[in-house]
Design brief:
With about 375 residues, this protein is of the alpha/beta class. It has 2 domains: about 80 residues, Roll (Urease, subunit C, domain 1), CATH 2.30.40; about 290 residues, TIM Barrel (Alpha-Beta Barrel). The chain contains 11 helices and 23 strands. Strands 6, 9, 10, 11, 12, 13, 14, 15 and 16 form a 9-stranded parallel β-sheet that branches. Strands 1, 2, 3, 4, 5, 21, 22 and 23 form an 8-stranded mixed β-sheet that branches. Helix 4 runs parallel beside helix 5. It starts with a strand and ends with a helix.
Length: about 375
């Protein structure tokens, strides 16, 4: 099948230009003046690469930990509707058995909507003092049990861990050798431990400024940098940022951007199952472990703990938010296309260029999603909605 996206202002290889996009058998074969096959009229609107969300827990009432086809199907439809044509479903801290079940459920899913690029394990390798919404009683160091990670190496593409845990640097080295990207977060680390993990292959920070350590002392008066500071100053490290003006206020984002630039920032939603749902009270989990959660003022909170639980903002809305505070549009787009694609090693994604997969978002003037093309096929957005 061959289609041409015509009458478009295309963001390609770092700049906007008037061009047509030809997609053949799901792959971009031309960005220029040529026309071939069926026509999709962009009506003079901006066309950008499909967004990539590498840290998300769910949406439209479903969680990645739910071991059902319906749950993953719904989450895939939610992400495609919001412009994320690719994503990495993220698990929560749970028993090893429950994590294995969730991972296997994702593995077996027959991808029909947004592309699943693998699984991100957020937990159980997190620090007790920075557990956030993760159940602390289920946290363990990688030295205790990492076999379930290696048993799922075919689909696990990212792991978050705290550098201060026993065996962290050894885990980073083995994971990197096996093609798993390691992100540091939910930690109580000092710089020596962080640098040991970076030297062993870790190259990102999980949701910067949210459960990331700050300068501290251990057993001597010497003050050490925490993960926040190391992540900001070390060019080897990419910072995940939840740019919803809540988890990271816009004024703080400007500082991160000044230090890291677009190549050093990856926008992530860290979206919860309640993303895309109306404001009100909900529960995360079930039974005795269920936690009350409330959506209000554009964010999900744990009212009993007076803390944020996670985001309900898709990365596409973060693009318009950041553009509105003066970040160049090119950089806003790169932070949820090129940067995540490079971080997880997908050189077939992240740009509208020859050889890339034909995933395109056509944007309205306010940068909301007008239409989405997945692998050269125009998506029926109305059919994606929860019935």
């Amino acid at each position: 099948m061959t289609v041409t996206v015509k009458n478009a202002i295309v963001y390609s290889e770092g700049k906007f230009k008037d061009a047509n996009i030809i997609i053949e058998d799901g792959v971009i074969i031309s960005v220029g003046d040529k026309v071939k096959g069926e026509i999709i009229d962009a009506k003079g609107k901006r066309c950008v690469a499909g967004y990539i969300d590498i840290h998300t827990h769910g949406g439209w009432g479903k969680d990645c930990m739910e071991a059902s086809e319906e749950a993953i199907d719904t989450i895939c439809r939610y992400h495609l509707f919001t412009g994320s044509t690719s994503f990495v479903p993220t698990t929560m801290t749970a028993s090893v058995e429950d994590i294995n079940i969730a991972v296997d459920n994702i593995r077996k899913y027959d991808n029909k909507y947004s592309r699943i690029l693998g699984v991100h394990l957020e937990g159980p390798y997190l620090a007790q003092k920075s557990a956030g919404a993760h159940p602390p009683q289920l946290l363990i160091p990688p030295s205790k049990d990492s076999s379930f990670v290696w048993n799922n190496v075919d689909i696990v593409k990212r792991v978050t861990l705290a550098p201060n845990l026993d065996g962290a640097d050894e885990f980073c080295k083995k994971a990197t050798q096996k093609g798993i990207q390691v992100s540091m977060g939910h930690d109580d680390s000092i710089d020596d431990e962080i640098y040991a993990c970076v030297e062993s292959g870790a190259n990102s920070v999980t949701h910067m400024y949210n459960c990331t350590s700050r300068p501290s002392r251990r057993v001597t008066p010497k003050k050490h940098l925490g993960l926040t500071e190391v992540g900001l100053i070390d060019e080897r490290i990419v910072a995940e940022v939840i740019a919803d003006d809540r988890h990271v206020p816009n004024t703080l984002f400007k500082m991160i951007y000044k230090l890291k630039g677009a190549k050093g920032i990856c926008l992530v939603s860290d979206s919860l199952s309640v993303s895309g749902m109306p404001k009100g009270d909900y529960y995360l989990g079930s039974g005795s472990s269920a936690q009350k959660i409330r959506i209000e003022d554009g964010v999900a909170i744990l009212p009993d703990l007076n803390t944020y639980a996670g985001s309900v903002t898709p990365v596409g809305k973060m693009v318009s938010n950041l553009y509105g505070i003066g970040i160049p549009l090119e950089d806003c787009i790169d932070m949820c296309t090129k940067t995540p694609a490079k971080l997880i090693g997908r050189d077939d994604l992240g740009d509208i260029a020859v050889g890339k997969l034909g995933d395109v978002n056509i944007l309205n003037d306010d940068l909301s999603i007008y239409a989405t093309i997945l692998g050269g096929v125009l998506v029926d957005r109305e059919s994606l909605k929860v019935k």
